[in-house]
Design brief:
Layout (H helix, E strand, L loop, with lengths): L4 E4 L2 H10 L3 E7 L2 E7 L1 E4 L2 E6 L2 H4 L3 E9 L6 E12 L3 H10 L10 E16 L3
Antiparallel strand pairs: 1-8, 2-3, 2-6, 4-5, 5-8, 6-7, 7-8
Protein name: Pyridoxamine 5'-phosphate oxidase-like protein
Organism: Actinophytocola algeriensis
Pfam family, one: Pyridox_ox_2
C-alpha cells in the first residue's frame, strides 16, 4: 500500500456520506467558548437536521456539524464538516416528522429539533496512494 493521500470530495458526495453516518458532532458556542456534543442526525433536502438538548443554545447561531467514517481496516476513511446557521424547527408537523425519524443519543429533556442551513460543506477522503 502506497502513502495515503487526502482527496477533496464534492458537496454532493460529502452530504451523501454524511447522511449515512450513524451520528455526528455539533459544534456551537457557550459564552464565546466552543462546545461539542455528539448527536444523531439526518440529511434532508441538503440540510442537516438534529434532535438535541442543545437546540436552544444553537438556534440562530452559526454552528458546525461534523461526522466521519472509517474504511476497511480503519486506515482509510472520510470526514465531512458543514458550517451554517442553525434554526429551531417550530412547525408542529415538521417536529413530529423528525421526532419519528431521529432518536436522540440521550433524551434528557428539553430536546429540540434544529436544522442547519449549510453555507460551507467540506469533505475529505483519505485514500490509498496505490
Amino acid at each position: 500500500m502506497g502513502d495515503p493521500r487526502l482527496a477533496e470530495m464534492s458537496r454532493a458526495e460529502s452530504l451523501r456520506l454524511l447522511s449515512e453516518a450513524p451520528f455526528g458532532r455539533i459544534v456551537y458556542t457557550v459564552r464565546a467558548l466552543p462546545a461539542i456534543v455528539p448527536v444523531r442526525h439526518l440529511v434532508e433536502n441538503g440540510m442537516v437536521v438534529v434532535r438535541s438538548h442543545v437546540g436552544g443554545d444553537c438556534a440562530g447561531s452559526v454552528v458546525a456539524f461534523q461526522a466521519d467514517g472509517a474504511g476497511p481496516g480503519h486506515e482509510l476513511g472520510w470526514s465531512v464538516t458543514v458550517t451554517g446557521v442553525a434554526r429551531r424547527i417550530v412547525d408542529t408537523e415538521e417536529i413530529e416528522h423528525f421526532e419519528s425519524m431521529i432518536v436522540p443519543l440521550v433524551d434528557i429533556g428539553n430536546v429540540e429539533v434544529i436544522r442547519v442551513f449549510p453555507e460551507i460543506v467540506t469533505g475529505y477522503r483519505l485514500e490509498s496512494g496505490d
